[in-house]
Amino acid sequence: MTHIRGHFFGGFRTTSRCEDLHSMLGEFVHSHHNLRDFVEQFFCYVLEMRSRETQSDMCSVVGHLVLQSPLHDLERSAAKLQTRKIFLLFRPMLSRACTLKVRSCTLTLTSDIYTISRSDNSHNYWHVSYYPEDSIFKCSCLRMESLGIPCDHIVALLVHLHFMEIPTILVLERWSKNARLKSNRRQGQQQQPSHEEGVDEVCLYDDIKLNTYYLMQEYAHYHSQPVGQEEHFSLDEEEFQVPLTDPYYSWHE
C-alpha cells in the first residue's frame, strides 16, 4: 500500500482483472473441445462480453436514481456524468462530507490550501489544495490519484466553496458515461487517412475482418449439418466459394 499510494490502478492490486476474464472464458472453452468447437465457443464468449457491456451501458443511461444524500445538487450532477457503478462508489462520499468541516485556509501564489477535519475530532485532518486558475483539487489522502474517484474531503471543500456541480476535472474520462463514444470517435479520427489510397486500405482491412468472421460462422454452420445434408463448401487454390445462406451479407472474391 505504501508503494502504490498515489498511483492510479483503478482499485486493482492483483491480477484480478485477468483472472476474471479467464474464469469467464473457462465457462465456454474446455480442454476436450476441437478447433471447430473452440471457434464456436469463443464467439459465444465474445458475444456474452459485448452483451454484458451493453447491459451496463443501458443501466447507466436509462432511469434516474433516487437522491439520498443531503447534497442534492452535487449528487444529481455526479449521476449525470459518472457511470452507474462508479456513481454508487462515489455516493457515500457525499454523506461522509457532511461530517467534515473546514478549519483553516492558507493562501499561496498558485493555490489555496484548506485544512479539513471531522466535526467531532479536530486532531485528524487533511489538506486539500485548490488551484483556482485550472480548477484542480488535490487532497493529501490521494484517493483521487489512486482510484480516480473524488474523496469526501474534496467534496467537503466543494460544499464550502458553494459548488453546485461536480467539476469535470474530477470525473475521469474512463468513468464517464460518454467514454465509449469518445473512444470510438478518437479511433475513427486516427484511422482516417488523408489520401484516397489510404481510405481504400482501411476499407479493405475492415472488409477482411468482417469476411473472416462470416467465414468462420459458415464453417461452423457447415459442420453442424447432419450427414448427407451438407451445403456446398469447396476450397480450391484459385477459387474459394461460400454458400450465401445469410441474407445480410454477400461474399466477394
From TrEMBL:
Principal location listed in the UniProt entry: nucleus
Keyword Zinc recorded: yes
One Gene Ontology cellular component: nucleus
Cellular localization per UniProt: Nucleus
Biological process, per Gene Ontology: regulation of DNA-templated transcription
Spans traversing the lipid bilayer: none
Domain named SWIM-type: residues: 114-162
Keywords assigned by UniProt, alphabetized: Metal-binding, Nucleus, Zinc, Zinc-finger
SMART domains recorded: ZnF_PMZ
Record-level Gene Ontology MF annotations: zinc ion binding
InterPro entries with a match to the protein in the record: FHY3/FAR1 (IPR031052), Znf_PMZ (IPR006564), Znf_SWIM (IPR007527)
Keyword Plastid: no
Biological function: Putative transcription activator involved in regulating light control of development.
Family, as annotated: Belongs to the FHY3/FAR1 family.
This protein's name: Protein FAR1-RELATED SEQUENCE
